[in-house]
Amino acid sequence: MSENPENPVPSFRPEARSPRGFIDKRSHQIAIERHLITTVSKVYEDFGFEALQTPAFEYADALGKFLPDSDRPNVGVFAQQDDDEQWMALRYDLTAPLARFAAQNWETLPKPFRRYAFGPVWRNEKPGPGRLREFMQCDADIVGSDRPEADAEMIALAVAGYKALDVPARLRVNNRKLLNGLLTSLGVSESGQQLGVLRAIDKLDRFGLEGVALLLGAGRKDDSGDYTKGAQLPDSAIQPVLDFVSAGGAATRAAVLEKLAAVLTNSAEGQAGLEDLTRIDTALTAMGVGEDAAIFDPGIVRGLEYYTGPVFEGELLLETRDDKGNLVQMGSVGGGGRYDDLVARFTGQQVPSTGFSFGVSRLAAALALTDLGKKNVARGPIVIIAFSESDMGEYFKFAADVRAAGMAAEVYLGRSGMKAQMKYADRRLSPAVVMMGEDELKAGQVTIKDLDLGRDLAMQISDNKAWKEGRPGQVTLSRAEAINHLKSIAENR
């Protein structure tokens, strides 16, 4: 394409598109996320956690198992070289920066160190439904306590957070020591085979016990004919593993522990894991966390190389459907557990730690598909209709009065007529519009239309006469009275 020197037109026009795995957020999405973070942060503070903010970038070697290969510096993370040729990467989560911070400042920190943090994290992975490359997390962690009661507090914290959000959810709790102990007692010590068992158990929700049994043994063929190789356990080992995962069906946490104890009689590590869960159950009961809010589920598998003890996962007890009515599977909306080895990467000394992370972006996406999300829709400002160029000063003066009274307001700055201005206000989800025509200005009055009383009809207004003869919710008041009336409309959400 040629360029005109008097009116240059670029020869190349880039396609307007977002990178895969990255999304734009409008005000309603931002409002939901902001509500989630504000609410959860208040819960964290109520539990005695202090806020901490760490940089978006960390040195790549601080990211633990996500350390980029020397020949592939962007595997799993977004990395670049600093001017001193050291690799830096955008943080993969909020826990690795905490471990670095704790190691760097351990001598001056109160111990145990209780911190919470929120912010975006980035993962250079293949995006998919519900899986973005940039998303928000909101974490709380206790660094420096090996007590099972610290894990119980993280579970209670998560339960309190979901309750404060008015989100129906429950925590599913397991302990890595249980399964590790069981496999050791069964003679399953090869790491590849152990990994196969863990992956088989992780499919329990999808395939049921019968499918898990196949994956524990020779393998499983799905309906399409694709074959998945199994963990190759002997028949004598398969049934104890099935008994183990089936224990989660018991009615109470104590009943689950009783069933697990029968399976783990020959495992010292398994018995240690049961002791952890017993103390967690006692603490949860003392904190008023009911059986329906936190359950023991041996089928929960998280962080195969990361967690060292109790693990927990937030399950959304809410059906989510898209605009076409299709069921949307959101997966877990939070998770955490005990990780006792992370700080040791820096110091060489084990520092017991436990934490929980709310999946803010995933939870916000889920709530946006439900009626709960509508509670936090971002409302627009009060819109002052612009009738004439000569009266713009009066419009701005009234807008300033509305703002001074603590409400958001704007003067319409387009050049469209009445109908278009009303559509604009409706699309902004404005609670009300203000009209100051010639008659109102002469009388020192303001006409207000409450859009919440008839938003569906706002799109049908064609002119000023139709507006004044139309719907209920329209009043004409003095300017002083108008401010109070607008307050009553804005506050009635």
Automatic annotation (TrEMBL):
It catalyses: tRNA(His) + L-histidine + ATP = L-histidyl-tRNA(His) + AMP + diphosphate + H(+). Residues 1-20 are annotated as: Disordered. One of its GO terms (cellular component) is cytoplasm. Keywords: Aminoacyl-tRNA synthetase, ATP-binding, Cytoplasm, Ligase, Nucleotide-binding, Protein biosynthesis. L-histidine binds at D93, L94, T95, R123, Q137, D141, R302, Y306, Y307. It is found in: Cytoplasm. It is an enzyme of class 6 (ligase). Residues 20-381 form the Aminoacyl-transfer RNA synthetases class-II family profile domain. Homodimer. HAMAP family: His_tRNA_synth. Belongs to the class-II aminoacyl-tRNA synthetase family. NCBIfam families: hisS. This is Histidine--tRNA ligase. It comes from Asticcacaulis benevestitus DSM 16100 = ATCC BAA-896. The lineage of its organism: Bacteria, Pseudomonadati, Pseudomonadota, Alphaproteobacteria, Caulobacterales. The gene is hisS.
